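Feature request, filed as a ticket because there's no other form

It would be nice if the structure record came with a short human-readable summary line next to the tokens. Right now we just get the raw output. Example of a typical job, pasted below so the devs can see what we mean:
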Amino acid sequence: MDSPLLSPAEWQEAARTRLPLPTYDYFAGGARDEITLRQASAAWDAIGIRYHVLRGVGDRTTATTILGHDVAFPAVIAPMAFQRLAHPDGELATARAAARAGIGMTLSTLATTPMEEVRAAAPDAPLWFQLYVYQDRGATRALVQRAEAAGYSAIVLTVDLPVHGTRERDVRNGFTLPDDVRIGNAVANVDTLPDVHGSSLAKFITDQFEHSLTFDDLAELCDATELPVFVKGVVRGDDASEAIEHGAAGIVVSNHGGRQLDGAISTARALGEVAQAVDRRVPVLVDGGIRRGSHLLRAIALGADAAMIGRPVLWGLTVGGEEGAVRVLHQLRTEFDEALALAGCHAPDELSLDLLD
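Raw output as currently delivered:
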């Protein structure tokens, strides 16, 4: 990090030069022709901002509250698997970066560090646990119980993976985990990916994860834990409403970073409908393609309470470990503060649809 990296594209390019091709392609790639992946940021760019002037914005704040936690700006680090492929400190560095940036982090089921160690690395940061439901429901319950015991404050149930969306880069590269990287929250002693031709992750998901989840399964999970359950992977208002009726305490508008159904609607386009359907009954978060502070401003104005930030943090982690991730988050917060001021707003709660075109 000798020269300043100012833009998300610069961070990504710096990370690309440091990573083996299969690892970079796994982190950067999407499903099939990557149509949804390419549209993610462009959809945020396409929303115009009708800013106010003469609003005396010298005194302003980026701070807000998410699920009862005070945070420095309306963002949470998204769940991302296998972070030790990016940096030896992996999720430990990311958790420490979240704490230093004053925001929370969501730990993936497929993290490469046990959830208890991640909690210990950031004892004061809001930490959520992202859950994939295993075919072995007892193993799934055990993961939830571990998260409760370790002090995580929410479960984020991912629901857009009934099957593994084909990621052609991973198939071409034969993506798998090296011998020194393991699944930190392994169940049934399965702590690595199978040795197969093509994508080992696709085979693991096919063999291990539940493919027939329903809203009744959501209700069962909500009844089985005292933690609030967010449902991640929603792009429709009717699905969001039904999830709330079955116990969801929050909704995450997400298309899995363009890695599942290619051609899926961008989250920038889906967010408004979902937020309208939820009607402030529970928090709404959004992820996918948010790279700039002005993207974050648009997301909050469309009705999100916060955004999940994924790949940019991963590129920072790759380039500079904890410090790199902190710098990326600092840049995003600084850009968001600038966008607030230039839009004529004093705080995130002043952002509303009337700012958007």
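Something like this underneath would help us a lot:
The mean pLDDT is 97.
The two ends are 38 Å apart (CA to CA).
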